[in-house]
Structures are given as structure tokens and as C-alpha cells.
Amino acid sequence: MNNLFNSPELQNIISFISSPEIQEILFPVKIVFIFFAIAFLSGVVYFYFKSSYLRYQAWQDLIAFFGWQSYGLRKIIKRWEVIQKRMESPAESEHKLAIIEADDFLNEILEMRGYKGTKLEERISQVEDIQLPNIKEILDAHKIRNELVYQPDYKLEPDKAKKLLEIYEKAIKAVESF
Questions:
Q1: Quick one: which of 162, 163, 175 has its CA closest to 108?
Q2: Measuring CA to CA, how many Å separate 6 from each of 11, 15, 17?
Q3: Cβ–Cβ < 8 Å for 138, 132
Q4: pLDDT, position 55
Q5: For the packed helices 73-88 and 92-112, what is the interaxial angle rounded to 10 degrees?
Q6: Are 102 and 168 in contact (CB under 8 A)?
């Protein structure tokens, strides 16, 4: 192996490549390659920051770390506050809408958490009792929600609406931990 590096043929090749005449000829080629390397590196950096990868992989972690709460929790809290504001209205239609929105919100949260299915019942069947202790109450509330949707003349008492909303709130807090 030592003889290979000390061979006269290899020494001739190295001296030919490092000769000033060849280096002078290759100088424009080096400049072109440096230009392309800078251009490609700039393109990679540009598209890296323009893509959603950085936002999802690093930005979310930074926000969660410095915000002392999980990423997206503010949106969840704001949306829940909008649903709760509907209950402050004396109108029965607003109470019905609050229950329907709470049910849809729980369904979306379960979908975001990776539970498969097209309906709330399918997703809830995959949740463990430990994580969601009030599954039976949720299914009962979902039945009432379906009656609200498919029977517009269904009467919903304000106390019952508040109880249903508490059931959904308990479920959302259990799944989202807020």
C-alpha cells in the first residue's frame, strides 16, 4: 500500500494536476462551480424556510416550550370560549347550536389526535376508558345532538343544555389536557 502512494505514476499525476498551467485553465471552471454551489445552497435555504417543515418541526416546539402549553392550545381555548358564549344567550336556538358545535369540536379533536373513523361514535369506540372516563355520557349527548340536528322542533331546556355542554367540556379537557 505504501508503494502505491510512493509510485512515480501517482507522483506524476499529482504534479500534473497541481501544476500552475492546469490550475490557470481550471480557474474559470472553479468559479462556475462555486457560483452554482452558492446558488443551490441559497435555493435550499430559501425553500426550507418557505416550506411548512420548519414551522411544524421546530417552530411548534419553540412555541410550546416558551409558551408553557402545548402548540395549538390557544386556538382550542378560544374556540371553546365561543361555544360557551352561545350558552349565555337566552335563545334556545343558540343553546342548540352550542351543543352541535361542541359535538363537532370533540369529533375534530379526536380526528386530530389520530382516531380513525368518519363519525364520532367510531372514533370514541377507539378511545380508552382511562383517557375518556365519560364515554357513555358523550354517546348519550351525541344522541341528543343528533335529535337537535334531525328534529328542528326538539325542545332543549337551558339546564339540560348546560349539562350537555359540561359533558363535552369534560371530554375535550380529557383528550386535550387543558
A1: 175
A2: 7, 13, 16
A3: yes
A4: 65
A5: 160
A6: yes
DSSP single-letter state for residue 160: H
Alpha-carbon torsion 142, 158, 168, 138, what sign?
A: negative
Q: Each residue of 73-108: pLDDT tens digit? A: 778 888 999 999 999 989 999 999 999 999 999 999
- Rounded Cα–Cα distance for residues 123 and 139 (Å): 11
69 three-state secondary structure? coil
* C-alpha 57: how far from chain center: 9
- CATH number 3.90.950 is the correct assignment for the domain at 73-176: no
Output the nine-digit C-alpha cell for 123: 372514533
The domain segmentation of the chain, as residue ranges, is 2-50, 73-176
pTM for the predicted model, two decimal places: 0.62
DSSP string, 73-133: HHHHHHHHHHHHHHHHSS-HHHHHHHHHHHHHHHHHHHHHTT---SSHHHHHTTS-TTT-T
DSSP 8-state assignment for residue 71: T
